[in-house]
Amino acid sequence: xxxxxxxxxxxxxxxxxxxxxxxxxxxxxxxxxxxxxxxxxxxxxxxxxxxxxxxxxxxxxxxxxxxxxxxxxxxxxxxxxxxxxxxxxxxxxxxxxxxxxxxxxxxxxxxxxxxxxxxxxxxxxxxxxxxxxxxxxxxxxxxxxxxxxxxxxxxxxxxxxxxxxxxxxxxxxxxxxxxxxxxxxxxxxxxxxxxxxxxxxxxxxxxxxxxxxxxxxxxxxxxxxxxxxxxxxxxxxxxxxxxxxxxxxxxxxxxxxxxxxxxxxxxxxxxxxxxxxxxxxxxxxxxxxxxxxxxxxxxxxxxxxxxxxxxxxxxxxxxxxxxxxxxxxxxxxxxxxxxxxxxxxxxxxxxxxxxxxxxxxxxxxxxxxxxxxxxxxxxxxxxxxxxxxxxxxxxxxxxxxxxxxxxxxxxxxxxxxxxxxxxxxxxxxxxxxxxxxxxxxxxxxxxxxxxxxxxxxxxxxxxxxxxxxxxxxxxxxxxxxxxxxxxxxxxxxxxxxxxxxxxxxxxxxxxxxxxxxxxxxxxxxxxxxxxxxxxxxxxxxxxxxxxxxxxxxxxxxxxxxxxxxxxxxxxxxxx
Length: 575
Description:
Blueprint: E1 2-4, E2 7-11, H1 24-34, E3 39-45, E4 50-55, H2 56-73, E5 80-84, H3 89-100, E6 104-107, H4 114-123, E7 128-131, E8 134-135, E9 138-139, H5 140-147, E10 172-175, E11 185-186, H6 187-193, H7 199-208, E12 214-219, E13 229-233, H8 234-247, E14 255-258, H9 265-278, E15 281-284, H10 290-299, E16 304-306, H11 309-316, E17 331-334, H12 341-350, E18 354-361, E19 366-370, H13 377-382, E20 386-387, E21 391-396, E22 409-416, E23 422-423, H14 427-433, E24 440-448, E25 454-459, E26 464-466, E27 469-471, H15 473-480, E28 486-496, E29 500-509, H16 517-527, E30 536-539, H17 553-564
Parallel strand pairs: 5-6, 5-7, 6-12, 7-10, 10-11, 14-15, 16-17, 17-18, 29-30
Antiparallel strand pairs: 1-2, 2-21, 3-4, 8-9, 12-13, 13-23, 18-19, 19-20, 21-22, 22-24, 24-25, 26-27, 28-29
Helix pairs in contact: 1-2, 1-3, 2-3, 2-6, 4-5, 8-9, 10-11, 11-12
């Protein structure tokens, strides 16, 4: 297996890793029986009265109590149950309890507003919604009352089903909190319902769950078009944890501190399932805060984190960073967006930790390529690693579909155990993404090297075509971030009447540093080709981010086009 001649086509290898036939519930039971007294889950938030330390026995008992409560509450096998909350402990318990009883977890972005949650509840045929009352000034409860005013009329919501013409599938809403509110049950009441459910009832439900059943529906960010519900199986989630942590040389000794949101694949899989697979200690943040992240690393002697580049940049550039003892921090996984070489260098220099680069997407249940723990720094800095075990990858011309040659760019396609089952209730979108031969089209532009290692050069839709020349924003961003005064750079294409598109760079300077346009242009002239030099250079204090820490490039581009006064053809609009 491996490479096929001079074509950019990697045929799946097992790399000595045998896939597991297990469900998420089976995995937690196994850890609870093997290492019952091992510390499993830690929340250290005395400032908000949240102090939780559970070993694997207690963790599993907490999940089982909730699972029995869900059964008593009427959650059936195959029901869709949504969770709309930040990274609170109840989120994790729900993820595992729903998995044990064969229900399907539906993840909800914490930034969603009324119209967006209404879309998810309708499109996802959600039967029950668990949520906090409000988050960061966004009243989730008021949104629900507007969408389904019938909710307020429920006098005993633990027993009465909601009947809303607007949300025909939704039967109940449960509040994660202690204060009773009109029409909604409390999480604690659901747990109490399980007191009268025999253990054998839960065991019987769990036995019915099969590894290839859908465990989760994760909604994509919806940066283009409506969000899509990606259907992921127990088998894919368990084995993705198996292959990723094995290649990353992670162990049960990890003390894993992370702020990745649980509605994101890197949170509900990369935090929760990774840690259970490893049998290590998970220390989640309720929400990302660079200072809290640093504090928890020091207080809990953190060894490992999964973080996107924007999070790492925020920690390294925090004014109190030098105060913390981070000597226990050994390694981190990072990806989701291109990882600049300069950032990896800073992590190694300032922390002493090694980066493992992962590349993938929700539709692939996370990573399809990953660097090895003992890869050279240069190799990690220049690629996103080799294909994962049991994963085939090829690079094709996005226009013809033909496989390109080694060293040529094209769209990355994958065929693996980790590919999604499809988008829920969207057969046309599913067939657009997974072709008849089973290849999943990523939308990412990549190059495969003669070693099989892969480099991501941009998105098919993000690629800038300037006067017929292909320009990859990730390359220019990485170059700009090597400048000692630049903390972060984002490069986008804007319409131009003559060249078709022109390149624009938005730059955020390092703290206490000043840089101007002339300095950036001199730096570019000395280091990159003329056609790659940004025509427009703008300086910003911050970038708009998704809840998972990715920069909203579509917003950046739209705002820049407005600021420049350009129309769709790249002409300056006149009043």
